[in-house]
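Below: protein 1.
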Amino acid sequence: MEGSLAGGCENGLVSETTPRANNAHTAHMSVPVGEEIGVFAHYDDARKLVNRLLSGGIPAQSVAIVGGEVTLVERVVARYGYGRAALAAALTGSWIGVIAGLLFTVTTPGESLAPLAAGGLIGAGLGMMVGMVLYTTRGSDRPTFRSHQHIIASSYRIVVDSEVGGKAKRVAASEGGEA
């Protein structure tokens, strides 16, 4: 179940959950029914079977991966204190300063890059000061750690529409994925 997860979901994507009046869209917002082709403990194994089904001619719209017993896992990756807050604010300020220096360099004659360096250093200093004031004023609401949230399922069922169930079972049973 443990793995690297991107974008908040195990498959690296975030699904659209905004309800719409479109009936075709709301039909996809329910748990798929049909024939179960396989159950897997890991998402990658379920995805491999889906790839075989698609290669075997099963229409993509007929296949679904249904996660069971979904759990939200939040992994703490680092402490977040004054040092990290100061560094983050200084980096942000330096980018703003470099952009200001770039604008100054472009609009004034000469080939000196001194405004870029000065903008970066001044921006870092100002950014750090502003960032520390903002971090300090948050009081008990300020973050004390950084984390990543992941949605993990304990099992992944492959479900296909009943119309293609027989063909999907044959494709799943074959080694090459073609029926």
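Below: protein 2.
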Amino acid sequence: MTLFELAILAVEEEPEGIDLVLPEIKELWAGIIAFGIVFAFIRFLAWPRMIKPALERRQEAIVGQLREAENVKSEAESLLADYQAQVAGAKDEANQIIDEARTTADSMKSEIVARAESEAASVLDKARTDVAAERERAAAALRGDVANLSLDMAEKVVTGSIDREAQAALVERYLEELGGLNE
């Protein structure tokens, strides 16, 4: 056989279609046996000595971390509750301070208003007293002036018929009548 004939036979014997994917039976049995040996090695030697203890350590580490996370979470919840209680207490205290300030302001307002009303009443009373006193002084001065003017007029009108004392008594009586009308 020549090289050319061998090449043609090789081309004719090449697998086609599904045969390209499937291995030959000999290769398949060799792969199954190799897999079994590796599986047995891992299952009986590596698993109990190396893999299983590593997995157990990893599991214990994860459980420890979960416990620590739960502890941290419970501490955080406790702190949150404390802070919320402090905030609520601060709000209550602030409301109490505001209420006390309002009460104090209301009482100060009442005191100031009462003091102002009292001062206004005293100023008004003093003004009334001053007006009354001034009115009395003016009325007295006016009486004196009217009396003098009346006497002077009466003296000029009636010369000699009425004496000075009689004229003064007449004027006094007239002024008393006028005073009664003013009141």
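Residues 21-182 form one domain.
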